[in-house]
Specification:
11 helices; 18% strand; two-stranded antiparallel ribbon; alpha/beta; binds manganese (II) ion; binds 3-isopropylmalic acid
Length: 358
Amino acid sequence: MRNHRIVIIPGDNIGPELMEAAIDVLEAAQKGGGDFKINMETHQAGAAYYTEYGIPISPETVEACRSADSVLKGPVGDPAVRTPDGIEAGLLGGVLRSGLDLFANVRPIKLYPGVTSPLRGFEPGGIDYVVVRENTEGLYASRGKGVGGPNAMADTMIMTRPGVERIVRFAFELAQIREGAPSDGVSRVTCVEKSNVLRSFVFFRDIFLEIAKEYPAIEAETIYPDAAAQALVMNPGHYDVMVMENFLGDILSDLGGGTIGGLGMCPGGNIGDDYAYFEPVHGSAPDIAGQGTANPMSQILSAAMMLHHIGEVAASRRIEATVWKVLENGDIHFDERGRAVQGTKRVTEAIINRLGDS
Ligand code: IPM
Ligand code: MN
């Protein structure tokens, strides 16, 4: 029996509802044939925690994240809870992403069956790429450090050679184990960069092209972010793995989410050499909290990504295949805004009921 110790951070607003769904699915997955046991330990962190204790996460919880085998986190933050300088107070990116050096933010964008995409003419699986967002530098390295005064403000974008090299390598390694772009089956890494304007992006691009030579079997290309925003709407089937600076990845991963039924379908992983945590791409949606209509897919698919990361590949695939199946069969469906019209619980039950058959 393989034992895994997992830290659970339910998060704010819809976070706990989503987490309940993901935990139920994880428990069903380990019952159904998995030769493993997940020992979960719940920790509170985020905006509600900040309101109570004045910090978004305790040092003990950060330590628990380091010592655990992995971490499953719900959405945190609340636009109403801010620090005196106006920034959202309950966010954990600075502490966990930079603090644990989780340099790769991995965001799969995949069109599942039965999900309404605002784009016409795409079959299930016809959009299937991964945004690999650099997670520790770029523009957000300036998080909370902007300088200036009442008449001007500046935030600085930083790119370092080791930082760019490792994220680019991560993207090529990922492309090696994927099956290529849906439209032509070609394994491809696309670097998004604005080298026509900013020197930092010339630097990013040059390193990308240098590392690309180490992977001759994978097609390497570059695109400007403005063109990429158009291409991800007009020709998303062309993409396999995309690698980019932090701020660009933040924007384009949400754009991608918009093409596959919304962020409710978007899981994410924050991965470093020593630690990792998994979370939905979206925020904590205070407007629908407590209604039981939040789409738990992003959290459930994040749990599947986590299982894959800790080596429980079969169980991870089983969850993903089951999600595919319940959507294909029409067991569950979402409204045009991506909400689980039959309720969060019904989605979870449908997955658990079919988890045994796959
Ligand atoms: C995300 C979020 C965060 C980010 C915010 C809440 C700081 O938008 O995970 O994409 O920008 O990284
Ligand atoms: Mn974002």
